[in-house]
């Protein structure tokens, strides 16, 4: 019996997934962010960090654990209507092979996540994978909520991998796409 207990104690770290960016906490964070989307991310918006002519950035009170940063951005439009987004820089690396593997791993973790928003039926976060390539300096995999109804129809989630001067940056974005771009499933 002692041997069995010792074996289980030694084996548990190998069975339990590592905490941080690639964990269930990613889905819990996306749940919070998407849940606040109808409020223009006001409940997760922190202090202002920059104010430009066309946009204002705020720290995000919600960040995927292990990530580098997260911001809520308000974009001003000519129609007196603001558009909001949430962006989380998940990882940075000079090693394309490593970060592209992590990109695939994070895509698989997000795909088919169930999102529950108070007062609505659950949604499924569905998406299409785009394989990163070192030749392409920008890759994006798009996700949409299914069913695509009401004000949630305009919500878009993106997983991106982009090359900046000397390193690759992986990010997750949640934003309000234009009415003309809204995903409609026939």
In short:
The protein has 186 residues and is α+β, with helices and mostly antiparallel strands. The protein has helices spanning 2-15, 24-35, 96-110; strands at 45-51, 55-60, 69-75, 83-93, 113-115, 123-128, 138-146, 155-164, 167-176.
Describe the protein.
This protein has a 9-stranded antiparallel sheet, with helices on one face. It has 3 helices and 9 strands. Strand 8 (155-164) and strand 9 form a beta hairpin. It is globular. The protein is an alpha+beta fold and 186 residues long. It has one domain (19-181). Helix content is 22%, strand content 37%. It has helices at residues 2-15, 24-35, 96-110, and strands at 45-51, 55-60, 69-75, 83-93, 113-115, 123-128, 138-146, 155-164, 167-176. The protein starts with a helix and ends in a 10-residue tail after the last strand.
